[in-house]
Specification:
homodimer, mainly alpha, 3-stranded antiparallel sheet, 3 strands, about 70% helix, globular, DNA-binding
DNA sequence: GAACACAAAATTGTATACAATACAAGTTAT
DNA sequence: ATAACTTGTATTGTATACAATTTTGTGTTC
């Protein structure tokens, strides 16, 4: 359960290890949405045959981190605005309830683990490594789902967070603060206190904050605002 | 969107078509949980190489319809009691809300489609084809998720229903009636009336009914009750 | 110079061959 | 007789070869 962030891979690399390495790279915004993922290229990088790479790409396509189109190959997914809205609406449906369960079940060990996450996250921000900070911020949420002991929901949340990373890469408003510094901390406090209502409420408002830091206006609204911007 | 139930496959079969055919067979309880799915065997059946079959099996493993263990191969999944509980708890979390959305968005065409589903389902029951009835019953739920226009949630629900089919195969109480004949009909009525509250409530109670028709006691309770049964 | 046609290159999809692992049966030793 | 070992078979994992499709580049025509 002690997932490392290191990108080194076992020799020889397996489909799963490649999928994880790619997933991490996407999480950390080291590869942008839309980037082509050629099979030969990846096979060379990881020192395996295309067979293994294809397995990894198929895995990632199932969690919608990559798009595979027949005879066109794989590329990093690029969620539409509609998909982005759906992802956050779904998170707002699943995660508050999950935080509630986590509040009833959190042990001292769990709390310590979450606090360590927060420390790491702050350290990454200090070190001017926003990619890593974002990745850790996602891990924080999956960790809560794990604590809630709902493996099924945790699996769903994991894919939603993966997609959220793409959504943030595409639609994050520059002007909005990186925030949430306190949000996660307050949430841990509620979990430590086994305060279910508080945990659920905090998670809900945290997600709403995140959601509202995205620019999910559709193209029409966007061009209108562009027109506004240029008319000055 | 007019998914056929026919099991004939395109020539040549593709990974997706094989995955769908296998999924259908599992849904209809034509293959039991735990059944070994040998690659060579399937390759011969569908007239393709193992490469294609492996793709299909990997797809099915992602929605947890099959278990793949390294160097051990694939077999039809066999959800534990804990997983079964989780699946139904998750459905109870997602589907009522989805039914609510569906109630606001359902068009006359949608209602007609759902009513056709119900007719087909009854026909299957009349024809003593419980497998097909069960499959159609699952389709009814995915159809509602589709009507709700929440593709993300619909995808989750689809995998939950697939797993429910396995759970029903494993844990359905013989003595419990096949029921739900009226449940689906009442739900369609609520959707047709755009009665959100009613749709949500009906879906919730329908799922609770389903859940309670399963025998999800753990082994200890089970053996105890066996003792009771024999002590008479 | 732009648009189309066609050929060449690159990339993906599938099949097959080979390597590695697991399983089962039979053998030997204690 | 049982346990451990060995060997043979079956099955899965991976690499490579070939087929099919898309993309790219070039030349021709208007």
């Amino acid at each position: 359960m002690n997932r490392t962030i290191d990108t080194t891979l076992p020799q020889p690399a397996t489909s799963d290890s490649i999928a994880q390495a790619l997933s991490l790279a996407i999480h950390k915004h080291r590869v942008a949405p839309g980037t082509k993922l050629g099979e030969d290229e990846l096979a060379e990088i990881y020192g395996v045959s295309r067979t293994v790479v294809r397995g990894a790409l198929q895995t990632l396509s199932h969690i919608k981190l990559v798009d595979i189109r027949r005879n066109k190959g794989a590329s990093v997914a690029s969620p539409s605005i509609i998909e982005a809205r759906e992802v956050f609406e779904t998170r707002e449906l699943l995660e508050p309830r999950t935080a509630r369960s986590a509040a009833t079940r959190a042990t001292a060990t769990d709390i310590a683990s979450l606090e360590r996450h927060i420390v790491d996250e702050h350290a990454a921000l200090e070190a001017a490594d926003p990619g890593r900070a974002l990745y850790l911020s996602g891990l924080f949420h999956t960790e809560i789902a794990r604590i809630a002991q709902q493996a099924t929901i945790a699996g769903f949340i994991e894919t939603l967070i993966a997609r959220s990373s793409l959504i943030i890469a595409l639609y994050w408003r520059r002007e909005s603060a990186l925030c949430e510094k306190h949000a996660h901390h307050a949430l841990v406090q509620a979990l430590a206190d086994n305060d279910e209502d508080q945990a659920e409420a905090l998670m809900r408002s945290h997600l709403v904050d995140l959601h509202s830091a995205l620019d999910l206006r559709d193209r029409n609204e966007r061009t209108l605002s562009l027109k506004d911007a240029l008319s000055q």
